[in-house]
């Protein structure tokens, strides 16, 4: 059984700088629904955008969308190929991304084929403006997968651009936490609670502006790009802040 949606009672936090003890204390936080603002010191707050809220309940198609058992017995969502979870992006993601942000996910792929965890595609549905894709690393690296971040300015590119890709051990049928932290000049992967790798990137523009008619897809990238994912997901959020964000898993 495949799947997709957020744990309803757990939350990751993004904070600028904390010592190790406070990181542990802040690793999870209770959800309250909608956009959540996470306070780092009682006065500052960082908005969180829960992408999985695009999944409607009751499900549009119970054959391809359903509840699953997530980590520690918490509920998660499942998506099978054929599920069509989509929404105007502006309902769940800001019109403009800040130059520095984090994407955090807790997932369990159910097949080796992989796919898109989520994507924001242009109105023609030919370009992924923002998205995360998990895919096999290729025959030269059996047992590994790529976690890739796509980030495309449609005013400059006619094809989707991958700005960072990380090779990690395959986690098919294993619950796995990861986060992508995007700063002005690099992208860092945190994998199963450890800082895994960093790649230097050049992003233009630093603050990505989406087309007003762009579409958010969960578990795929639309009918043309496809990339349908057979996956269980217990957490999928974007933390966006003008300051450098630090994901905590």
Describe this structure as you would to a colleague.
A hairpin with a 6-residue loop joins β9 and β10 (128-136). The longest helix has 6 residues, at 20-25. The protein is globular, with a radius of gyration of 17 Å. Strands 1, 3, 4, 5, 6, 8, 13, 14, 15 and 17 form a ten-stranded antiparallel β-sheet that branches. Strands 7-16-9-10-11-12 form a six-stranded antiparallel β-sheet, with no helix packed on it. Strands 2-18 form a two-stranded antiparallel sheet. It has helices spanning 20-25, 222-225; strands at residues 3-5, 13-14, 36-39, 45-50, 65-69, 75-79, 85-88, 100-109, 115-121, 128-136, 144-151, 162-169, 176-182, 186-191, 194-200, 215-218, 231-241, 247-248. Residues 1-43 have low confidence and may be disordered. With 249 residues, the chain is mostly beta strands. The chain starts with a strand and ends with a strand.
Brief rundown of the structure:
The chain has 2 helices and 18 strands. It is mainly β.
Question: Which key terms come to mind for this protein?
Answer:
single chain; globular; 249 residues; mainly beta; 43% strand; 2 helices; ten-stranded antiparallel β-sheet
- Helix percentage range: under 10%
Q: Spans of 5+ residues with little confidence (pLDDT < 50)?
A: 1-43
What form results from the Cα inertia axes? globular
Can you count the beta strands? 18
State which percent range the strand residues make up: 35-45%
Distance between the termini: 25 Å
Computed structural class? mainly beta
List the helices and strands and how they pair.
Layout: E1 3-5, E2 13-14, H1 20-25, E3 36-39, E4 45-50, E5 65-69, E6 75-79, E7 85-88, E8 100-109, E9 115-121, E10 128-136, E11 144-151, E12 162-169, E13 176-182, E14 186-191, E15 194-200, E16 215-218, H2 222-225, E17 231-241, E18 247-248
Antiparallel strand pairs: 1-6, 2-18, 3-4, 4-17, 5-6, 6-17, 7-16, 8-13, 8-17, 9-10, 9-16, 10-11, 11-12, 13-14, 14-15
């Amino acid at each position: 059984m495949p799947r997709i949606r957020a744990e309803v009672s757990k939350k990751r936090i993004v904070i600028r700088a904390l010592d190790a003890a406070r990181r542990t204390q802040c690793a999870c936080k209770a959800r309250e629904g909608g956009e959540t603002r996470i306070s780092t010191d009682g006065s500052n707050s960082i908005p969180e955008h829960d992408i999985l809220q695009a999944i409607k309940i009751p499900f549009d198609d119970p054959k391809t969308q359903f509840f699953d058992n997530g980590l520690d017995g918490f509920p998660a969502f499942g998506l099978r190929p054929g599920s069509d979870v989509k929404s105007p992006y502006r309902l769940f993601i800001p019109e403009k991304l800040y130059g520095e942000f984090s994407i955090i996910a807790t997932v369990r792929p159910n097949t080796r084929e992989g796919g898109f965890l989520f994507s924001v595609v242009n109105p023609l549905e030919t370009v992924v403006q923002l998205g995360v894709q998990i895919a096999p690393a290729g025959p030269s690296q059996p047992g590994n997968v790529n976690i890739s971040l796509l980030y495309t300015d449609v005013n400059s590119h006619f094809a989707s651009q991958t700005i960072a890709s990380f090779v990690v051990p395959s986690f098919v049928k294993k619950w796995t936490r990861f986060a992508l932290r995007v700063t002005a000049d690099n992208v860092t992967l945190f994998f199963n609670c450890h800082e895994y790798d960093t790649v230097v990137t050049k992003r233009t523009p630093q603050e990505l502006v989406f087309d007003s008619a762009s579409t958010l897809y969960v578990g795929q990238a639309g009918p043309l790009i496809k990339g349908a994912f057979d996956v269980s997901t217990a957490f999928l959020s974007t933390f966006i802040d003008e300051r450098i964000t630090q994901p905590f898993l």
